[in-house]
Amino acid sequence: MKDKNFFELLEKAESGEAEAQYMAGVGYYNGEGARKNYRKAAHCFTKAAEQGHGKAAEFLGMSCYREGKGVERDIKKAVYWLIKADEKDADYAWFDLEEIIKKPNAAEKFGLASDMPKIIEIVERRRKENEAFFAEHDRLKGEIY
Questions:
Q1: What is the residue range of 65's domain?
Q2: For residues 61 and 43, is the Cβ–Cβ distance under 8 A?
Q3: What CA–CA distance (Å, rounded) separates 57 from 87?
Q4: How far apart are CA 23 and CA 31, in angstroms?
Q5: What are phi and psi for residue 16, nearest 5 degrees?
Q6: Number of domains in the chain
């Protein structure tokens, strides 16, 4: 059963508002305001991502195409949307790209040979940007263990 606020959000999403489309996708994905429906979530994320919404592109790549939720699992499409997400400074797209290319023979297995230079550039740039965070994380991890 959809709640009233979600219904209002859907009206905005249907009128083409990218943020509302993204939020509707999150609602469907998590079952918040509506029944969980990965197919509808992927549809909403796609509509928003096609308008340049970075977090929608990130969710579409990471949670839909990479995991095969709401769409057929497709790592090549996941990479496409994660690269688009990174272009919009989405927080975790680079990390998911790194996880994908860590898989043995990822370039050959997923048809990513032409994407590898861009993926590597993104991962290296974002790692460097987050160097201080990782140093502190590793230091704290060492203190805990």
A1: 4-144
A2: no
A3: 10
A4: 12
A5: 105, 10
A6: 1
User: What is the C-alpha to C-alpha distance for residues 141 and 137, in angstroms, rounded to an integer?
Assistant: 6
Q: Using CB atoms within 10 A of its CB, is residue 69 exposed (0-12), middle (13-18) or buried (19+)?
A: middle
Rounded to two decimals, the pTM is: 0.86
pLDDT in tens, the chain (145 residues): 467 799 999 999 999 999 999 999 999 999 999 999 999 999 999 999 999 999 999 999 999 999 999 999 999 999 999 999 999 989 899 999 999 999 889 999 999 999 999 999 999 999 888 887 777 767 777 766 5
As to burial, measured by CB atoms within 10 angstroms (0-12 exposed, 13-18 middle, 19+ buried), residue 20 is buried
Is the alpha carbon torsion for 64, 69, 70, 71 positive or negative? positive
CATH number for the domain including 40? 1.25.40.10
